[in-house]
Amino acid sequence: MSPSFVAVVGPAQEREREEGAAQLLRQLGARVKTLDLWEDAGELFSTEEEVARVVVVETGARPDLGSLVLRSLRKEARLEGVGTLLVIDHQQVARHDPASGFDDFILAPLVPAELYARVRAVEWRKSEFANEEQLKLGDIVIDRAAREVRRDGVPVVLTAREFELLVYLADSRGRVVSRSELLERVWGTGYEGGARTIDIHVTRIRSKLGPTLDLATFRGAGYRLGAPGGSR
Fold it and tell me: In sequence order, which residues have a C-beta less than 8 Å from that of residue 137 and are 6 or more positions away?
């Protein structure tokens, strides 16, 4: 399966090279849109077009520009939550800042098979799905049948109650769930403790799953797990 819709951002001379990301991705069967480094990211969209699944950024011999370009792209709300891949010349890799905000990077000259694999991996990490057995929220997979949680493929140990709380919030994602509802649906009507136990369990879940879990607190109201696709 080829990547579906990929945006490639970079100087024109980089984007349209035969061995550049745009041309290689087209050969791999992806629909590709290109954008100059400092163009408005809104140019990536037409009125009814889907959002790119991954944005590939090529900066040539200036990997230090990557973080600036990424900040500019993030101003476009439709790119929120979209995976990003930075292309770095192999001679410039020592200048790459791992805290630049990209989901992954790949070295140039580009190898088609590796580019394909990296784009697909970024797309997978950012994707979401739900069925009777599993829920996927970005890089977090909740396996209801096995009662397991994995982040980036690595198992995360949750207590039984933490797991049940996470599943209920995930099933309710996109709406604020009150503490009273959580007590009733997760702890049961016979539970005699207070709502403070929910706050403690949420803190533990956040600690174990990290900042990629989009779990927001609404003071005096409850908790909300981010809606599918990152919508609010």
Answer: 128, 170, 173, 213, 214, 225, 226
Instruction: List the CATH number of the domain containing 102.
Output: 3.40.50.2300
- Residue 6: exposure state from Cβ atoms within 10 A (0-12, 13-18, ≥19): buried
Tens-place pLDDT, residues 105-146: 999 999 999 999 999 888 877 776 667 788 888 889 999 888
Are 82 and 163 contained in the same domain? Answer: no
Q: Residue 164 is part of which domain span?
A: 129-230
Please state, in angstroms and rounded to a whole number, the distance separating the CA atoms of residues 140 and 39. 33
Does the CA dihedral 12-16-20-22 come out positive or negative? positive
Same-domain pairing of 65 and 119? yes
Please indicate, yes or no, whether the overall pTM of this predicted structure exceeds 0.85.
no
Residues 180 and 210 in one domain: yes
Q: How far apart are the first and last CA of the chain?
A: 30
